[in-house]
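ingest -> fold -> write
write: protein_1
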Amino acid sequence: QVHLVESGGGLVQSGGSLRLSCAASGDIIRFNIMGWYRQAPGKERELVATIAARDDTNYGDAVNGRFTISRNAARNTVYLQMNNLKVEDTAVYYCNWRSLQPLAPGDYWGQGTQVTVSA
């Protein structure tokens, strides 16, 4: 089992910045990928950003160039720096941890943190 604790959500004006954090604990497999997904009301959950071994990153088209994902591997923590926030970024943001070890599969989600961007 892997437990994820998210923090850093809140209310911000358009053009502002927020930083999300997600700390993983439990049965951490070193070969893993962590990331952020978001879900707005009435919409499907979508990719925000992921980061894997060797800091390989991937971003959703809607946030590319504005958001930056990073990780502290020693602390099993991933961060999402969100700049130039837009109203359409309003959503619940979920942290995800997934094992890339075929012999030790696992896919876990955090409880979500609300990000609200006002006009």
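write: protein_2
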Amino acid sequence: QVQLVESGGGLVQPGGSLRLSCAASGSIFRIISMGWYRQAPGKQRELVAVTTAGASTNYDDSVKGRFTISRDNAQNTVYLQMNSLKPEDTAVYYCNAYIYTSMTLWNHYWGQGTQVTVSS
């Protein structure tokens, strides 16, 4: 069993910054990728940023230049540094990971979500 535990959400003014963290724990053999999705009220969940084991990264166009994803492989933790936040960034942010739990078995996991609200 694998758990993803997120932290770092909250209320911030436009132009402010927040840092999200997501720690994976449990029966982890190898992490393939970790990333962040978000879901605003009335909208579908969308990819924000993802990083692979090889440290490649991919961002949604709406956050390029403002958000940075990083990963601590030793701690099985992924971070999302969010700068220059805008009201349209308001959403529940979900951690996402593809993880091998053995040499041949992998699965897709989600965190419980953390609320980010950007408002004055």
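write: annotation protein_2
The radius of gyration is 14 Å.
The chain has a mean pLDDT of 96.
pipeline exit 0
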